[in-house]
Structure formats: structure tokens, C-alpha cells
């Protein structure tokens, strides 16, 4: 199933699509954006990073089937979606913006 333990243990090596890799790279770069924003006292750096993550997520989500028959790919894609949502939720909270649960 897609329970939390399965997603935590997902093998992200199953993610090979360029859109997936771009989104992963944005998520990997996000902590650096946070540090830069704090160091420079520039919250707009966080807003820009979140906008880029959201745009990459949107492109990936629109062009990718998440619930595929292959469990390894499905779990990895679900884990990526959950990770992106968590980063966006946390980043918006840092900026004092409430994020809707659904759109």
C-alpha cells in the first residue's frame, strides 16, 4: 500500500524522468535557500525557491502518471509528492502564509 512506512522506505533510484530529477534537485537546494534567506535577512529568497518548487512540481505532476503498476516507481513518486508538499507547507508557514490542504 501507500502507507507512511512504505513511502519512507521508497527507493528514489526508481525516479529517472528529467522532470522528477529537476524537482528532486530543487528540494535538495531548498535548505541552501533557507540559509541564504536567514543570513541575508531576505525572506523573498524563500518565496522564490518555493515558487520554483511549485512550478517544477506542477510540471512533473501534470506530465507523470503517479499510480503506475510498478510498486517501486509508484512508491518513489508518492514519496516525492509528499516531500514536495511538506517543503511547500513548511516554507509557506515560515513566510506566514497558510497553505490549503486541497486545491
Layout of helices and strands:
Blueprint: H1 4-8, H2 18-40, H3 44-63, H4 71-94
Helix pairs in contact: 2-3, 2-4, 3-4
Q: Could you describe the 3D structure shown?
A:
By secondary structure, the chain is mainly alpha-helical. It contains 4 helices and no strands.
Characteristic key phrases:
single chain; 103 residues; mainly alpha; 0% strand; elongated
Summarize it.
The chain is mainly alpha-helical and 103 residues long.
Which oligomeric state applies? single chain
Low-confidence stretches: none
Radius of gyration: 14 Å
- Biggest sheet, open or closed, and with what strands and sense? none
Q: How many distinct beta strands? A: 0
Round the mean pLDDT to the nearest integer and report it.
92
Q: Helical content, roughly?
A: 55-70%
